[in-house]
Specification:
Heat Shock Protein 90; 4 helices; 136 residues
């Protein structure tokens, strides 16, 4: 689709402190690529939701951030990868109000709405990879 990736960074996600570090890292990427404050906040909010889910439900994982050019527009790709139990029903998990942890159920569906592109790959017992793309 004309997407190209280059520079890449990673961050281990094990605790709430790491979720905060993930937000800072994404903010830095957005600032470097001259995203607006609103675009930066959208990316930080989505990362916070998905990184927290990774820590709480999968026991942690790794966040990868890479530069991305989508049809010539600069941006970045965020992948959060875990080796947890997987998501039994991805479609169900994307519905507003769905929660296995007693929360408001805005995490997955809300994060999807804050991205240009959002993909979930999950296998029972083998973990989950969530990819979020942002470009100008």
């Amino acid at each position: 689709m004309g997407n190209e990736e280059s520079f890449r960074e990673s961050l281990r996600l094990r605790s709430d402190k790491d979720v905060s570090k993930a937000r800072v890292l994404i903010s830095q990427w957005a600032v470097r690529q001259e995203f607006s404050v609103i675009e930066r906040t959208r990316a930080m909010t989505a990362v916070s939701e998905i990184a927290r889910n990774c820590v709480v439900y999968a026991g942690g994982g790794t966040m990868y951030v890479s530069s991305l050019y989508h049809e010539g527009a600069p941006g970045f790709r965020i992948q959060i990868v875990d080796q947890g139990p997987g998501i039994p029903d991805v479609d169900q998990s994307m519905k507003r109000g769905y929660s296995t942890g007693g929360g408001l159920g805005l995490g997955m569906e809300g994060a999807r709405n804050l991205c240009r592109a959002f993909r979930v790959e999950s296998n029972a017992g083998a973990g989950t990879t969530i990819t979020m793309d942002y470009w100008k």
